[in-house]
Design brief:
The structure holds two protein chains of two kinds.
Chain A lengths: L1 E10 L3 E11 L4 E6 L5 H8 L7 E6 L2 E2 L4 H7 E4 L11 H11 L4 H14 L15 H13 L5 E5 L7 H16 L3 E5 L3 H7 L2 E6 L2 E6 L1 H9 L2 E7 L14 E7 L2 E6 L2 H14 L4 E6 L4 H13 L6
Parallel strand pairs in A: 3-8, 3-9, 6-7, 7-8
Antiparallel strand pairs in A: 1-2, 1-4, 4-5, 9-10, 11-13, 11-14, 12-13
Helix pairs in contact in A: 3-4, 8-10
Chain B lengths: L1 H20 L2 H32 L2 H28 L3 H6 L2 H5 L5 H31 L9 H28 L3 H6 L2 H20 L2 H24 L3 H6 L7 H13 L5 H15 L1 H29 L4 H14 L6 H4 L2 H20 L4 H23 L4 H34 L8 H33 L1 H8 L4
Helix pairs in contact in B: 1-6, 2-3, 2-6, 3-6, 3-7, 3-9, 6-7, 7-10, 12-20, 13-20, 14-18, 14-19, 17-18, 17-19, 17-20, 18-19, 19-20, 19-21
Classes of the chains: A alpha/beta, B mainly alpha.
Chain lengths: ~300, ~475
């Protein structure tokens, strides 16, 4: 698991790159860390890999303290860095073999892990080619294979699918999901909100070193965009007049052919709302939840943080 | 555990070896250099043989070949230095450093691995080049250097390689760009080139045995450089810094803050800060005093026992010297005209600053060497006095102790401060960069220098000019 409290990093005695980050990611969970460039995502990840020492606060990764047990932390973490960091004159299999040795794997495990990962990521045929000759996506896949070579219990992935074609990106997402189901603790730093939405159990939005929001997608949506909205669409123009709305339901918007309701507790309120509409003989075509995406949550949060208005 | 450590070192080194030998930009120039220079040197040897044979300069010829071997060994070292210079900063620029730093490899694995490959590659080329030259030399009618001389030259080449590479790797860890590291290469190449000239002098005109001292000196210095590099190797600094900015104002502020400490007045500074600094100097001060006593006694005994082997000291000769001293003792009255107190003061201050600079570039060793030379002079003077039947203890009490009480105290304090600065530089400081440690060491030295050494030297110079001569005159009949 990953646990941090008030984790902070100050540079040059004046600039706080990370300021009071508190996180708790349990085994089998994925946390997506979202934020602009320079928001503090990479600094956070570097503190979690014991590469940077926190100025304030503490962090435990895989049960090890990042300050007191840096070697244990590094041995148990797989890191995909911002830059792929490949040695261009090494072939794919040499590269994995090298990092297998670096992580202290025996020859049999190295060979097994290396051939599995090369096969899985579709690099088996290119395994004997120098990585300098690989495409961007292949390089990214090899870097990810390096992060997984020692089968770590914690994964810190910075932009895992950047530069990949859609098929490769899907492959990587599948692998991340597989790792999650095998109770790995995973943090993904990404700008790809759809990916975060698809993979993450928890989402944290970081801005200027501070965590603005942290929770499940539903919690975030509710906190930022308010209660869930439902839309009733009519077959033709219909005047609903003054509706007797159940408690916790507000009429948010109306047009000739639709009504939009903000509902606090859909399980209790929606059946009553439907009854109210049918009692008025409303020509209902559909009644559905208005989709709210993580993108809206993120953009609204950023707009609020910067003090500008957000138009969905 | 030890075996595991070396496995890590070898792992890093082997990858670097592979990488270097797959890079034609390194291999081809090196092969050219290794193969061309021996032929050039061989041709020079041939010309020199012809020339010397015409004029009978056999001695120079004998010395020319060891010199040529030394130079041939040096060329590949200077070129491959660039590889060592980019050992860490190059990986940083290529973005390959972070996966390595995120791995469980220890700092020493990475540092020593890169050091090993940094030393081994140039040495391989150096020794290859030397071997080729020796093969070519077999065709010439010249005498080969003795096995002893060859061993010395190969050891010197090795010591040069370790020294240059260990310095280059310190630069590589501290630099933020390859460009900055390459610009700093001259700080390594130029001093070693001077060193090579000194060694050449030893080969041509000196005693071969003295070359051993050069090997020893270089080995000590390299060991200290490696220690410095390891002590200040921080993963954080390799990732954290992107731009080199020299903030003179901030540096000056840090320096002044450290010099003044928490004191608000001079009196408070002397009452709180100086005792605090002195408490840090206790151990180095004891070491310096121990070295001084050993050096003075050794030098005294050496002069007393060795000088009579070279100079015959008969009673007549002793009388002659004593008479000369007696005739000229009156000159002490006008000492302040020929050697004024301010001159003594300034030259002593200059010497102390010299100790500092020599110490800073050599982790105290050169500063300490200068101190030892000065202490040896005292022992030598006392030994000389003893040889002409003066009581060394009386001479010390009358001619040295009155001003020496202040001057020697100042010298001890200044040397102890230099010794501490060198020790601090090679000691790990978890929260400070090498630059900060250097600046704070300098500030510590400056505190001692301004607060104690300068006033003590001022007092000593006045006593030396106005009091000591009178005491000598008074005590002379009883010496």
């Amino acid at each position: 698991m990953i646990e941090t409290f008030d984790l902070s990093k100050q540079y040059n005695n004046d600039f706080w790159a990370v300021d009071g980050v508190t996180l708790n990611v349990q085994p089998g969970q994925i946390l997506a860390l979202l934020g602009q460039n320079g928001a503090g995502k990479t600094t956070t990840v570097r503190m979690l890999t014991s590469l940077l020492s926190p100025t304030r606060g503490w962090a435990q990764v895989g049960g090890y303290d990042v300050v007191k047990q840096p070697q244990d932390v590094r041995a148990n973490v797989g890191v995909l860095t911002e830059q792929h960091g490949l040695y261009m004159r090494m072939t794919g299999d040499e590269y994995l073999e090298y990092f297998g040795k670096v992580y202290g794997l025996d020859a049999v495990t190295r060979a097994r892990q290396s051939s599995y990962l090369l096969e899985y990521f579709g690099l088996a045929e290119a395994a004997h080619r120098r990585s300098g000759e690989y495409s961007k996506g292949m390089k990214q896949k090899l870097a990810l294979a390096r992060a997984l070579i020692h089968d770590p219990s914690v994964l810190l992935l910075d932009e895992p699918t950047s530069a990949m074609d859609p098929e490769s990106a899907q492959l990587v997402r599948n692998e991340i999901s597989r790792l999650k189901s095998s109770r790995r603790t995973i943090i993904i730093c990404t700008h790809n909100l759809a990916e975060a939405e698809a993979l993450a159990d928890q989402i944290a939005i970081i801005y200027r070193g501070k965590i603005l929001l942290n929770g499940t997608l539903e919690e975030l949506k509710r906190a930022v965009l308010g209660p869930v909205e439902y839309e009733a669409k009519f077959a033709y123009a219909f005047d609903a007049g003054e509706l007797d709305l159940p408690p916790g339901v507000i009429l948010a918007d109306r047009s000739a052919t639709s009504l939009r309701f903000r509902v606090e507790a859909p399980h209790e309120a929606n059946p009553r709302l439907m009854n109210a509409l049918t009692a008025r003989q409303a020509p209902l075509v559909s009644f559905h939840e208005v989709p709210k995406k993580l993108e809206h949550v993120y953009l609204k949060t950023m707009a609020d943080a910067q003090g500008v208005s957000y138009a969905a | 555990m030890q075996r595991k450590k070396w496995e890590g070192v070898w792992l890093v080194a082997r990858r670097e070896f592979q990488d270097q030998f797959r890079d034609w930009r390194i291999v081809i120039p090196m092969l050219l250099m290794v193969s061309i220079f021996p032929f050039v040197a061989d041709n020079t040897t041939r010309q020199a043989v012809n020339f010397m044979n015409r004029f009978g300069g056999d001695l120079i010829l004998d010395r020319l070949i060891p010199f040529a071997i030394l130079v041939i060994g040096f060329f590949p070292l200077s070129f491959t230095l660039l590889v060592a210079l980019e050992a860490f900063v190059g990986e940083k620029e290529r973005g390959t450093i972070e996966p390595l730093l995120s791995s469980p490899l220890e700092d020493s694995h990475m540092y020593l691995g890169k050091l090993l490959v940094g030393v081994a590659t140039p040495l391989l080329f150096s020794y290859g080049s030397i071997a080729l030259y020796l093969l070519l030399l077999m065709r010439r009618p010249v005498e080969f250097p003795s096995a002893y001389m060859m061993a010395l030259i190969l050891l010197l080449t090795f010591a040069h390689a370790v020294l240059m590479v260990s310095a280059a790797i310190v630069i590589s860890v501290q630099a933020t760009t390859i460009r900055a590291a390459n610009l700093m290469a001259s700080f390594v190449v130029v001093p070693v080139a001077f060193l090579l000239q000194g060694e050449t002098l030893l080969i041509f005109w000196g005693n071969e045995d003295v070359l051993f001292l050069a090997v020893l000196g270089l080995t000590i210095l390299s060991g200290l450089l490696i220690r410095l590099g390891l002590a200040h190797f921080k993963r954080e600094y390799l990732l954290g810094r992107e731009i080199d900015t020299l903030n003179v104002k901030s540096l000056w502020g840090t320096f002044l803050n450290h010099v003044s400490g928490n004191a608000h007045s001079i009196v408070e500074w002397y009452r709180t800060e100086i005792p605090a600094t002195l408490s840090h100097l206790r151990q180095p001060l004891l070491i310096v005093m121990g070295i001084a006593i050993i050096t003075i006694v050794s030098s005294y005994l050496w002069v007393v026992n060795t000088v009579p082997q070279f100079i015959e000291i008969t009673p007549n000769r002793v009388q002659e010297i004593q008479g000369y001293v007696s005739q000229n003792i009156g000159n002490l009255d006008i000492l302040d005209e020929s050697v004024p107190a301010p001159w003594i003061f300034i030259s002593n201050v200059r010497a102390m600053v010299g100790f500092l600079f020599a110490g800073l570039i050599s982790f105290s060793t050169l500063g300490l060497t200068l101190f030892i030379v000065n202490m040896a002079l005292i022992g030598g003077v006392l030994g000389g006095a003893s040889l002409i039947n003066f009581s060394p203890l009386a001479v010390f009490s009358v001619a040295i102790l009155p001003h020496g009480l202040f001057e020697l105290t100042a010298v001890f304090l200044a040397t102890a401060a230099v010794l501490r600065a060198g020790a601090v530089l090679v000691t790990p400081q978890p929260d400070k960069s090498l630059g900060e440690v250097f600046l704070l060491s300098l500030a510590d030295w400056f505190r001692v220098f301004v607060g104690l050494v300068v006033p003590l030297l001022a007092i000593a110079s006045v006593i030396e000019v106005y009091v000591t001569p009178q005491l000598i005159k008074l005590a002379f009949p009883y010496l």
